[in-house]
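Dear Dr. H.,

I hope your travels went smoothly. While you were away I took the liberty of generating a structure for the chain from your last submission, since the lab meeting agenda had it listed for discussion. I wanted you to have the full record in hand beforehand rather than looking at slides cold. The sequence, exactly as received, is reproduced here:
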Amino acid sequence: MKHGLPICASLLAALPAAGQGFSNQGAAISILAGTQLTVAGNVVVGSGGTVDNAGTLALTGNWNNSSGADGLTPGTVQLTGPATQ
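The corresponding predicted structure, in token form, is as follows:
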């Protein structure tokens, strides 16, 4: 059983991460190249918050950026919700 835990952890790390909403209120968040952050819900970047996106940010809800032009650095953003984008 001691050897099973690292294998399970490795498999979980390889899966895409999914959450229900994402709120950044002043932190510096990095999405590394080759990774995808999938958010089931809204993404809110508050004042002073940044998202350094070298990978892919996918969301099904609304995008709200209150931090200005520097809130998101170039990368791929996928808006996949049912509403008109």
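Two observations you may find useful: Strands lie at 17-19, 22-24, 28-31, 36-39, 43-45, 50-53, 56-59, 63-65, 76-79. The chain has one helix and nine strands.

With kind regards,
E. W.
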